[in-house]
Amino acid sequence: MAEQTFPWLTAMIVVPLVGAAVLWALPRGARRHARAVAVAVSLVVLALGVAATLAFDTAQAATHQLTEQAAWIPALGVSYALGVDGVGLSLVLLSVVLVPLVLLAAWREHPDAALADGELDPAEATAGDVAGDRIRRYMALVLVLEAFMVAIFAARDVFLFYVLFEAMLIPVYFMIGAFGGLQRRYAAVKFLLFSLAGGLVMLAGVIALYLQGPGGPDGFLVENLVGAEMSTTTERLIFLAFFLAFAIKAPMWPVHTWLPDAAEQAPAGTNVLLVGVLDKVGTFGMLTLCLPLFPEASRWAAPVIIVLAVISILYGALLAIGQADLMRLIAYTSVSHFGFIVLGIFAFTSVSIQGASFYMVNHGLSTGALFLLAGFLVARRGSQRIADFGGLQKVVPVLAGTFLVAGLSALSLPGLSTFVSEFLVLVGTYASNRPAAVVATLGVVLAALYVLWTYQKVFTGPVRPELAATVDLSAREKWVVGPLIAAMLVLGFYPAPALDLVREPAQTSLTQVGVDDPQATQVASTTISEDGSDQ
Amino acid sequence: MTTLPAALPAAAGEMAHAVPAEGVFTSAWLLVALPLLGAAVLLLAGRRSDRWGHWLGVLASASSFVVGAVLLVAMLGLPAEERVQDLHLFDWITAGAFELAAGLRVDPLSLAFVLLVTFVGTLIHVYSVAYMEHDRDRRRFFSYLNLFVAAMLLLVLADSYVLLFVGWEGVGLASYLLIGFWNHEMPNSVAAKKAFVANRVGDIGMLVAIMILFAAFGATDFETVFSLTEGANEGLLTAAGLMLLLAATGKSAQFPLQSWLGDAMAGPTPVSALIHAATMVTAGVYLVVRSAPVYAGAPTALLVVAIIGAFTLLFGAIVGTAKDDIKKTLAASTMSQIGYMMLAAGLGPIGYAFAIFHLITHGFFKAGMFLGAGSVMHGMSDDVDMRRFGGLSRVMKITWLTFAAGWLAILGLPPFSGFWSKDKIIESAFATADAQGWQPWVFGTVALVGAGITAFYMSRLFFMTFHGERRWTDGHGGAGSSDLPVRHPHESPVLMVGPMVVLAVGSVALGGVLALGNGFVTWLEPVTGHAEHHEPVLPVPVIMAATIVLVLVGAFLAWRQYAASPVAVVPPRGSALTRAARRDLYQDDVNEALLMRPGQYLTRSLVYGDRHVVDGAATGLARVVAGSGELVRRVQNGYVRSYAATMVAGVVVLVAVVLAFRI
User: Fold this and answer.
1) Nearest Cα to A53, choosing from A77, A27, A84, A26?
2) Would you say residue A525 lies in a domain?
């Protein structure tokens, strides 16, 4: 691996933080330009992300690259260690792609008239919009969050990971609690409560893990902790501590209930980042911390986790069908989708893990697009109750068409990228756990129901009189959803660039957890596994 | 992989191995790309292309036909063992043990479909130019039609089950969009959704079948899978075969997933003709025939295919006898005719070729009749109730004559197209491989009786529409006719009539042409294999004569009741069977009682439970874990400071513990 020359990852953390500080400190007279500054900063980060990707060697995607390391609290063995493998990089990319779109979506055409603080009565606020000078502060928070997102997907030190895991909650707390709907405070506190509970349990796990590890100046580095000697019981307990925190974040049934409340109250952009990216920290943690650190415990818990994942898939989908609120509905669909991701990870096949890794990216694209479009709808109607819509396809065909495409991607229509990942999860899982794969396939029908039912109620039927003058997507809004839809289509027909990033890491995860890939049952054994097993 | 098959000359009549595509066959991707491009341009250009969009749509479909025709000529010049050509496009999904390239398989089977889809498709595009003339969204209609053609061609050309599935869902999407084309009326929107969801139930079968095949063979492309099925575990192949059948029942409206097809008639009539009669709904038959090597090792699955086909054949025919809606009668008929094809496919190698043969002739005569129905509706103010038609043969001469061609074809009277294909199916049904058992008698009798019922309901439709007395008035009728609807029927414009005439020619002659020298069956042999001859349990002339007699009886009964005697404008109460048939033999009631109601209860109780039980428990637990008393109360007051404090406290604890143990 070539010597690291430019600290790409640190740059992607520092730039948005500086940008946020600038936004915060912007003198009153210059606040008109706040939105432009924010978008510009996010575009710089995006450019850095692209450059970092070019510097990344896909052939070595399983090894951490773009690494940086500096002692942070040497006395404790804590280091500022960054680096990404293919999975981390793809999630970093997802983050830096979504942030500019979220900022652009929050951009209101005429905020200047409403520059005065607190001009918008919170009672009138819906999850769709953020108005007035509040946009500036909102955008600053988004940039802070971006820095944390990049950092956590790149953290190679468990202590650093934990600190970021907790620190991310702060901007999100404000993004829900200060900019949301009527019940925003309740939702924000609930979000915090759940995250906090998970975080505390994980804290116990982190401490216990460190005590089992080699200690020393780099005692918290993941690579030094892998293979730590510990008793089976200890390993299982620490695994559970980590897993619980990740399951809450992901969110999995039955600890998912904070998400619908948060999503109902939060502005659309917050939901995009919360559900599209932040929740991936949960599944990312399962994949990159749980499996390598606790292989025995992972194998031990897998049967139960698979059951929980399958329940999440069906339960989330059924609950989505029963929702009356657009944002809650999308949140529940994500519970279902996260079920697929977790299923893929714990099915322990190269195909399913790779599918799950790719799924994380695709879910960000499709749910991101759905939340953004739902936000546009809500901003137009001033309500997010599904029953308040009807017949919009005739009035706003472009909004309707893009919403349908995003919805089709949520139901994993072949030809869109989500299909490739969901398909790989299912096919991979079948090889190791047939009943789970077959039952999970029922989710395919339920997904069709929740997507098409929503489309039917919102966009078809006679036009509601109060919606007859609704305006279609503006050019800005088209630029927000256009890239996401293009990405879904391109990756649907040509997923190779994304799959290449996660292929080697999936293989490595499998080796780390100590499971052999299942072989085709009806083919005379032509090739014995290429490498000797890791025993 | 690439060198092996070409070197082995396939014995005459054996299924051929694929050879890498060469020459003109390397441009087969254009078949899919051209209509896809048309759809994309029309969708992206939006209203700017309103004025010329429909012609672009026609052009895209027609050029695809031209490519198909060129490929046909090229393939006719090849020896049989080189007629299966695989074209590698690009590496599509490479994930761990799963490796799949996107590729096309051009062979006699896919090419037959290509020509059917693009030829009939182009005619229907032309027809739609006039039919949709007054719709302000005509351009969008054409973009969906093009999308459909592209997806359908991908479905039949794909060289793997996964790529086939892309086309499979693509046609489902196009069908959804087109059934719901007028979705500002809620019933249309609901019908579109119903079709998609029923298909998705079938898709479970497709997905599970792919999983089974991949877990067993480590591949999903036809070439690899089919080379490994021989000698594979029978239980496994049976499971795969049944799952593929489930997929087929969804797409092809076969029992038990048939209920969406009648509602799908909510779409504009050209859509019903193209998608819900001639092409898409026959994709299930294609899937079964394409999967012949899988079924070869799974006789039980194949038997189930035949049973499903036979059952649906009667189901659709019975429903067809009672419908008064001209389109729904045709839809029931489509279901029944596809039942014939399924039955034939379920007979195995002796039936595969006839299943496809009937599929092709049916594509022509059924599309022709649907276009005829559209023409009638066009002239009758979009009415579909046959009880208010009657005597239209005088005012719509061309529609009447072209429809008559389709009618005679579906009746299966010689020498019309349907005779050549359907009669062969009936004959084969009497000749199943298991000649000693019950099968030939049951399947043969069902097919035979079905022919009689078909003759009855199709003649009923034909006489009710075109003959008998007029149950409408042109407004000049004077007193006494005032309670009849006022209609001004007229022949349709040439853009509509033209395609109808072409399809009528096909209905008359195509079957005979393809049957010349057993040509079509021989053409398909590289795909279906050569069938050994089985002697039917009854002599062939007896079967043929019985069929013709039953058909004539059916037609005569219909004539007596609907042409020679007056037809009530208000439907009579009818027998219990009639009432059941009118309600599609209670298919929707059954679905509602078994699936929808319980589903609603389940969803509602889960929503309640989530809020009151799961949420309560989880939140309570989180509270306990996150600490109690003062801390939580302050957090709940919304002071994030206290949160930050907890976080810092957490870090402090972490640091403290680490220090404590280090020292």
Assistant:
1) A84
2) no
